[in-house]
Design brief:
alpha+beta, 2 domains, 3-stranded mixed sheet, 12 strands, 36% helix, 20% strand, elongated, AbiEi antitoxin C-terminal domain-containing protein
Length: 296
């Protein structure tokens, strides 16, 4: 009687695992196509019965803890199961899900020692394709008021890794402005530098632990950042909204030098703006023409 495909896989278990160990590193994402190609072209698998399917091999490897399954939600209504090789890393594995992505927001606050909290989840960013400049956009106060009267929109692109989630953001195309590398757990990972991190969390406070945490980050960054670099990043990123008013407010509240504040104050302050979304009964800074939570 011929052996079943499952019995054969058990017999050559060591050889199968060796093939995967040679091809993948811990924390890599193993795709259906990767396994299909191995099943087709690697000699070791030629002894398996022709009825062996990719799903059979995936189940075998998952049962032996070689592939670690996780849920990859692309939108509210679309998700799939994907697999990490041997181990899931909080920073490296989410980065492997998308080409040219980088760590950002609350994750980089922590890695740059800008927060004492240890974020439960992780954040990665991937730049979108280039879009036309915003220079000709007709910004109006009523549109600003309307946009910031609502809760901040958050991504539905999330990977669920058991104890933590990885939020996958799609940012403006900046040609990787302010992206550097840092060694984490023996791997060099792409990450926003301190100035880019402060800018990103100021623009999307819901991804930076909230405005109180962000203010603490500015305080912790004193003596480490270049205000000129921060402003150069802001100008190059060409946002529609006047985020320099947000930066000026944080820098003032964090106790930065008046000469540094003047660099932001010299920029046009034409509109009333907002530190956060959906605020109730906010206070108002005359200097920065900015609404902010009363408790700040």
């Amino acid at each position: 009687m011929s052996r079943s495909r499952f019995e054969t896989m058990k017999i050559i278990k060591k050889e199968i695992i060796n093939e995967f160990d040679e091809k993948f590193n811990r924390g890599d994402i193993v795709l259906f196509k990767d396994i299909n190609d191995m099943l087709k072209y690697n000699k070791i698998f030629s002894i398996l019965p022709k009825a062996t399917r990719v799903k059979d091999l995936i189940n075998f490897l998952a049962e032996n803890n070689i592939l670690i399954p996780f849920k990859h939600q692309i939108s509210k209504n679309q998700s799939t199961t994907k697999y990490a090789f041997r181990e899931i890393y909080k920073y490296k594995t989410p980065l492997n899900l998308r080409k040219n992505s980088f760590l950002s927001h609350y994750t980089t606050m922590y890695l740059h020692n800008l927060t004492e909290n240890i974020p439960k989840n992780s954040y990665t960013n991937q730049e979108q394709s280039k879009k036309p400049s915003n220079k000709n956009y007709d910004l109006q106060q009523k549109n600003i008021d309307k946009a910031f009267s609502k809760p901040m929109r958050k991504t539905n692109h999330i990977a669920f890794f058991g104890d933590f989630k990885a939020y996958m953001l799609n940012g403006k195309n900046t040609e990787r402005l302010g992206i550097t590398e840092i060694e984490v757990d023996g791997d060099n990972l792409a990450i926003t530098d301190i100035e880019r991190t402060l800018l990103d969390i100021s623009i999307r406070p819901g991804y930076g632990g909230g405005v109180e945490e962000i203010l603490k980050a500015y305080i912790n960054a004193k003596g480490q950042i270049s205000i000129n670099r921060l402003l150069a990043y802001l100008r190059k990123m060409d946002y529609i909204y006047p985020y320099h008013q947000v930066l000026g407010f944080y820098l003032e509240r964090a106790g930065y030098k008046e000469s540094q504040l003047k660099l932001l104050e010299s920029m046009d302050i034409e509109y009333d703006f907002y530190l956060n979304y959906n605020m109730k009964n906010p206070s108002f800074s005359e200097r920065w023409k900015l609404y902010y939570p009363q408790h700040l």
